[in-house]
Amino acid sequence: MKESLFQAIKRIADATITLMHDEYENFMPEINRWDWQPGVGLYGLIRVFEFTGEQQYLDYSQYYVNRLLDVDVVSYSINGSMLFEIVLKLFEHCRADRYQTELHYYLRWLLRSAAKCQNGCFEHSWTETNVHLTEQVWIDTLFMAGIVLADSHRLLGREDSRQELIRQFAAHQACLQDAETGLYRHFYDANTDSHMAGAFWGRGNGWMAASTVDALAAVGTDDPAHQPIIDSFRQQMGAIKTLQAPNGMFHTILDDVDTYLEMSATAALGYAALKGARLGVLDESFVAVGEKAVQVIMEHIKPNGIVDLVSSGTSGFIAYDEYNKISIAPRLYGQALAILALTEQLHRTK
């Protein structure tokens, strides 16, 4: 690689801050500032701090969260949960009491009051209060809300969080994972017992795989209660391994070669392959899957630090053929997922 991993990670992280400035720091007009996209972006930035020690990425994350806490702008929703993972990370690294207080109230909501479908899955709520997703399960829920449950157990000793995490993985696997292929559907409607288009969406499978390795890193792999999570992950990744294109990327619908190759799916799945191998839940053959993904990410970082070939937001309500029409554009999650993959590769090379 012509550019070092460290240099590439910093370039992507700096571009992430620029995107955050441009899209999420304005107070008027109101846009959803306590939401999943800035949360995922900050998740990437804090990972850069944790792996490189570059203080400015923690400082920016603290700045972003503090300015919202100062004016009491928070959102209790599944999508908004990702920003509470950032609050948890800030408490871990800064130990300010205000972060622990916010976590206390958030976990009380998530564990006691957050709406659940009849099958036990969290309803996938958005920050917009006029959007009602009753009895709907979305594949990204466990990335947005599952990681913070796992880290709450790791950092705060919350056994109730671990137990809920186990329940959520089981419930999501039951309704979203295809028994034959091991891949995950994008969406499930418990009212109609349907998967809408039923697509094996690439980034969605990336959300699930990345949330699995991060959750397992937090709660451990030795407890027998976690074995069903590991078994499901192995089945998913076994299918993923066969679907990687020769250039290292994955299609936006994983098993449909007529759909375009997409970078956020590639980054998330490459990350899961590398970290799964490091955790010992995948065999070493998956390292090649991850390293091929890292190579193609490195080849598609623009001079300004933007990760190329990332698909825009993708609703679970769309028809099958619409997946291939989603536009390509810079996105915070594309930046962050690339950071996760590159920092995991950096971990291997240290």
Shape: globular
Total number of helical segments? 12
How many structurally independent domains?
1
Assign the structural class, choosing from mainly alpha, mainly beta, alpha/beta, alpha+beta, or little secondary structure: mainly alpha
Distance between the termini: 16 Å
H/E element sequence: HHHHHEHHEHHEEHHH
Query: On the 0-100 scale, what is the average pLDDT?
Result: 95
How many strands in all? Answer: 4
Question: Which range best describes the helical content: under 10%, 10-25%, 25-40%, 40-55%, 55-70% or over 70%?
Answer: 55-70%
Largest sheet: 2 strands, antiparallel
Please, could you describe this protein's structure?
The chain is mostly helical. It has a single domain, classed as Alpha/alpha barrel (Glycosyltransferase), CATH 1.50.10.10. Helices cover 57% and strands 3% of the residues. The protein has helices at 5-24, 36-52, 55-70, 81-94, 97-112, 141-156, 159-176, 202-219, 227-241, 263-279, 286-298, 332-349, and strands at 136-138, 187-189, 250-251, 261-262. The longest helix is centred in the first third of the chain and has 20 residues, at 5-24. It starts with a helix and ends with a helix. The model has no long low-confidence stretch (mean pLDDT 95).
